[in-house]
Amino acid sequence: MQPLSKADKAETLTLTGRADGLQPRAVEHLHAWGLSSEFTEEGPLLSSTVLFRNGVKLVHDAMPCDSRYRGSHIITQGQIEKIYIRNLRRHDVLVERGVVAEGIHVQKTTEQDMAARPVSVTLRDIQTGTTENVRAKYLVGADGAASATREMMGIPFDGLTTDCYRAIMDCQFKTDFPYILGFWHVVLHQSLKEIGADFQKA
Q1: What are the average pLDDT values for consecutive 10-residue runs of the chain, which has 202 residues?
Q2: Of 89, 106, 72, 96, which Cα lies nearest the Cα of 187?
Q3: Rounded to an integer, what distance in angstroms lies between the CA atom of residue 47 and that of residue 24?
Q4: Residues 6+ apart with CB under 8 A from 17
Q5: Matching InterPro entries, A to Z (predicted)?
């Protein structure tokens, strides 16, 4: 029996940005798995954040943290997925793409029954419509805030939502907008250094 099954509804890697960054605590977990350097080498380090709404500064966060890692590592979700998939292949695990979970059932077991596989999941191939029933000891629903796994399990969402949007750009600005040089220096300057370009502040 396969020790790990990984199903993904998406048929390709994520092509657009979603949560394009890793916080220090997340990198600590990756360090425990031996993967931190693969992630931190991918993108620039953002050491502070300034948020504005309607021209009013809401927060200027220098990102203080007692972690061994500092700031937010800017890395796209597509890059993150590539690293995870590469690591799964090291353990002979392939991602089944175009597959969705349509039903979840959990049987009650005792603590003494360590060999039990109480989780039953029905998986459907989006292209062919064929279904497969998979039994497991654990089910991990890593499908975000709008988790279909959570909904099928009847687990309520206790978090908060926001109407704030953000974008990450690698470009050159000519503006008198406040704090732009700080953002430029952290994000754009490091990106230019990676391709060997000379950088001078305007």
Answers
A1: 70 77 90 92 78 72 77 85 90 88 84 78 91 88 82 84 66 65 40 39 40
A2: 72
A3: 11
A4: 76, 77, 167, 168
A5: FAD-bd, FAD/NAD-bd_sf, RIFMO-like
